[in-house]
Design brief:
This protein is of the alpha/beta class and 474 residues long. The protein has a domain of 223 residues: 3-Layer(aba) Sandwich (Rossmann fold), CATH 3.40.50. The protein has 19 helices and 18 strands. Strands 4-5-15-10-11-14 form a 6-stranded mixed beta sheet, with helices on both faces. A 5-stranded parallel beta sheet has the order 9-6-7-8-16, sandwiched between helices. Helix 3 crosses helix 4, helix 3 crosses helix 10 and helix 5 crosses helix 10. The longest helix is centred in the middle third of the chain and has 22 residues.
């Protein structure tokens, strides 16, 4: 099969499904992740795309993967509506700061790059459910920003409930407040006793419980959902076009701070489609499982180390399996073997190297220095995650190719951390400053499949089940 609008599992255990079914399925029913059966070549379209506004570019890129699942007029309306919520007319503007260009992905409702995908995904879910008459109960796990962006994308929407797990005490105070102060009846926050990796484990265990998944119409907003990855590929094209036009360069290189491999995998897909990107620079903090893999070929799980960039405090990158599929030559049986080995032993190995990706680590001390330097020398505040990227990017600068660093969050989301580093209380935003005095709602649970399933059952019993949307939660 060679149709980008039909989707296969990395583990080969399902028949091909349409884009619409892939969006609703989230995690494949065989435990794998969904991928298009082919990656389209966009190079003949690049010249026509270069000057398009963001929403129109998004519709063009996504149309290659959507097929007949969504009429083109509806797709145009979805992208226009989704990106009208952003505060910058460019949606994801790129600005030059010192030796690098900063792709600002934080102009959406929750000030984080996850908004780019989740504003679209929320509207996409709503469109599909309206067309099919179905209902959806979303389950997600977050290290910080995904949860608030997912909630912002679906709060108050008919036919949808959302349950978001976050690691108790391991997100920033702002990130926690952005989730738990949303009191819409269809929003349910869960603080689990554990790490983000524990949350991901519980998420996958529940999605692999096929009877529960079917009974409760589960859907995914984590980057296991292909629509998340697809939406993120767009800003790689957009920034490459804008920076190449500005500098006269034929291509860029893009540096991506990452923990879960979703954002950098979107860049990988954009590169495979023919985006003018010379290479990707993968940046991690001290939780460096991904950087170690790309430098040694060994993917080995370690202990999660708390850092000042908590959204990257991850030792099991859920999107890595998608990359593994391509790295093995699209061999699902080999993917199954390697993932089973990793589950048993906490380690897998791949021979050879990936020419299009280089990787490095930005430590706490190094990123703090970068934050101070860019504030003092350039008058620009970097949030700690973006600072990890800039730290690593500066090691890989090229003379003839501009370097774009993805800015994943507004610095105000980590105001206290930045104040501690620069010794000034300078990181503020009106959307953040008003959060701290608002009432909150959250359930505290152990990081166990049974506990989360019981909470979901009990919560949904208090809902009007036709359609399955809560009218009131006591």
């Amino acid at each position: 099969m060679n149709d980008p609008a039909m989707y296969l599992s990395t583990r080969g255990g399902i028949e091909p499904v349409s884009f619409r079914d892939a969006v609703l399925m989230g995690l494949a029913t065989d435990g794998g992740l969904l991928l298009p059966s082919a990656i389209p070549d966009a190079t003949p379209k690049l010249d026509a795309w270069r000057q398009l506004p963001y929403a129109q570019l998004a519709a063009e890129v996504m149309a290659l993967f959507v097929g007949d699942s969504i009429p083109r007029t509806a797709l145009d309306e979805l992208t226009a509506r989704s990106y009208a919520t952003f505060r910058d007319p460019e949606v994801t503007p790129t600005v030059q700061v010192g030796p690098v260009h900063i792709l600002e992905l934080f102009h959406g409702p929750t000030l984080a790059f996850k908004d780019v995908a989740l504003q679209f995904l929320g509207n996409l879910f709503e469109h599909i459910l309206e067309q099919t008459g179905a209902t959806l109960n979303i389950l997600g796990a977050t290290s910080g920003d995904t949860g608030s962006a997912a909630i912002a994308g679906v709060r108050g929407k008919d036919r949808i409930n959302v349950f978001i797990m976050h690691p108790h005490g391991r997100t920033s105070a702002v990130q926690e407040r952005q989730m738990t102060t949303v009191l819409d009846a269809n929003v349910h926050n869960i603080a689990i006793d554990g790490t983000f990796d524990d949350g991901q484990r519980v998420l996958k265990e529940i999605f692999n419980d096929i009877s529960f998944k079917t009974e409760f119409h589960l859907g995914a907003v984590n980057s296991v959902n292909w629509a998340r990855i697809l939406a993120q590929t767009v800003y790689y094209f957009h920034t490459a076009f804008r920076v190449c036009e500005r500098t006269g360069a034929p291509a860029i290189q893009a540096c991506v701070p990452t923990g879960n491999f979703g954002d950098v995998f979107a860049g990988y897909i954009a590169c495979q489609m023919g985006a003018p990107i010379r290479r990707l620079i993968l940046a991690t903090n001290e939780n460096d499982i991904l950087a170690r893999f790309f430098n040694t070929g060994v993917y080995r799980q370690g202990e999660v180390r708390p850092t000042t960039s908590p959204a990257m405090d991850i030792q099991i990158a859920s999107n890595f399996e998608r990359y593994l599929y391509y790295r093995t030559g699209s061999a699902p049986e080999q993917v199954r073997t390697l993932m089973n080995q990793f589950q048993r032993e906490g380690e897998l190995r791949i021979d050879g190297c990936e020419e299009g990706i280089v990787a490095g680590v930005g430590t706490h001390e190094q990123t703090a220095d970068i934050i101070r330097t860019y504030h003092k020398q350039h008058g620009y505040l970097l949030d700690p995650h973006t600072a990890v990227g800039v730290t690593v990017a500066e090691r890989f600068l090229l003379n003839d190719i501009p370097t774009v660093c993805l800015a994943t969050a507004h610095p105000a989301k980590f105001g206290q951390t930045i104040a501690d580093i620069v010794k000034e209380d300078v990181a503020h935003h009106a959307l953040i400053d008003g959060l701290m005095d608002l009432p909150t709602r959250c359930e505290f649970l152990p990081a166990e499949k049974s506990a989360v399933q019981t909470f979901m059952r009990q919560t949904l019993k208090r809902c009007d089940l036709e359609p399955r949307v809560c009218k009131a939660i006591s």
